[in-house]
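Example record

The entry below shows one chain as it appears in the dataset: sequence first, then C-alpha cells.
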Amino acid sequence: MKKIISLFFLGFCSLALLAQNKIVLHVDSAKTTISKHIYGHFAEHLGRCIYDGIYVGRDNAKIPNTSGVRNDVIKALKDLQIPNLRWPGGCFADTYHWKDAIGPFNERKHIENLSWGNVREDNSFGTNEFLDLCELLGAEPYLALNMNSGTIQEAMEWVQYANHANGTSYLTDMRARNGRANPWKVKYWGIGNESWDCGGNMSVDHYINLYKQYATAITSYSNTEKLFRIAVGPGTPDYAWTETLMRDIPAKRLEGISIHHYSVINWSAKGSSFQFSDEEYFKTMQQAFRMEDFITRNSEVMDKYDPAKRVALIVDEWGGWYEEDPSGKGQLYQQNTIRDAMIAGLTLNIFNNHADRVKMANLAQIVNVLQAVILTKEEKLILTPTYHVMEMYKVHQDALLVPVTVQTNNFVVGNNQLPAISASASKDTAGKLNISLTNIDNKKSQSIELSVGSFKVKQIKGRILTSSTVQDHNTFENSNKVSPQEFKKASFAKGTVSLTMPPNSVVVLELSE
C-alpha cells in the first residue's frame, strides 16, 4: 500500500511540475512598439561574408546576380524582411577607408584586410554597392565610422557623399560621376566600434572626447538632418562605461548606445559548432541568458540619466560563436544548428520584452560567418535554423508589445538550472495576437497554459521549428532537414490556450478574434 501511495505521490508531483508553465498575456497593457530594427543584421568584411557570400562579382556567369550580388541571397533576405544592415564592420571598420572603394573598379585600391587574415581585397564591394543593396532590400543602412585609423574629415565627407543633395559639393559631384545622382539618406551612423578593444583600446574618457568631435562634425549644429548617432557602449558588464557615456555626452549629440554580447562558452576553447555535448549546450544557454541581465543593468544606468528613454540601447552584435569549421570554408565559418535556433528564440524574446529601451539589434553575421542566417557554397545556398526563427518572429516587427508574466519549469543539468520557457507577445495592426515561445530544454516536453484574458480566440494558427537533437542542422546535401512546420496542437477554452512544446523547440502562435 505504501508503494502505491508513493507512486501516486510521485506521479502527482510530476503533473504539478508540468502545470507550472503558465503564461499570462496582459493584452490591455499593450502600448510599446517593438521596433522592427530589433531584427537587423550585420555584414563585415570577414571570411566569406561579403566576397563569395553576398557579392560574387558582376562578371560571374555561373551564379545569377544583380550588379554582382547573388540573386538567391537577395530573395532570401527580402523574404526575411530585414529592416537594417550594419556594415563594413566590426573590427574591419577601424581600418576601412571608404574612398578606396568607390569609382571605376580598375581604379580602386586593393587592400590587405589587417583585421581578418591579412587577405587581399580588391574593394569591388564599396559604398555604392552596399547602399544600393540596402535600397534593393528595403533595408536601412547602418554605417560604422572609422574612428581608429580614420579622421573626422573622412567621416564628414562620407556623410556628405552618402546624404547631401546632388551638386552641393565636389563629393556629391563625385557620387554623380559614380552613377548615383540622388543621395541615399543614411540615417544610422555608428561612431567607432569596440573602442575599448580592437577599435583603439581607448579609455572611456578618451573615447568620449573623440566621440563628441565626430558627433558634432558629421551633421549640422542642431542636427536638422536627424542623423542617428550611436556611441560605443560596453562589450562586458562594464556599467561604469555606460554611466560615463550618459553623464558626459551632451544629450543633443547622442541618439543611441551600442552593446555587444556573444553566447561563448569559453573564449579560449569555444567548442564545435555542431559536434557538442549536452553539457556544452547547457553552458551555451547559460551565456545566452546573460543577455537579460546585461540589458537590464545597462537600462537601469540609462534610466538614471534618461528616464524618458530617448536614447536607444542598440545590441549591434549578438549570436553564438564557436570554433571555426574545420572544412576550410572560410574564416569564422561555422555550422548553424538547433542550438542556434534556441539562442535566437530566447534572445529575440528578451529584446522584444525590453522594447521600451532596445530599439535596434544586429545578428552577427548575415552570411557564412558566425551565427549566419545563410550559408553558401558556389551556386548553392541553404537557410539555417536561425534564419527560420527570425522569419517566424518577423510578425513582431513594429507591433505593440503585449507584456507577459511567465511561470516556468526549470531546465536542469546537474546542479545548475535555467528557465525552460521564454516568451514574448505582440498585437499587430489587424488586432491579432502573436506569441513566440522557446523551450530550451533538450530532454523534456513542456505543457503550457496561456491566459489571454478577455481576448476571444476564434482561430489559432501555429508554426513550429524543432528537430530530434540540438545538433541537427541543414547541409548542402540536405537543405531542409530543419525547417518550420505547421503546429496544430494548441487549443482554446475558457480564456486559456493550451499546448505542449517538444524539447528544443520554437513555436509561434497567431490568435484571431
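Notes for this example: Confidence is low (pLDDT under 50) at residues 1-19. The two ends are 50 Å apart (CA to CA).
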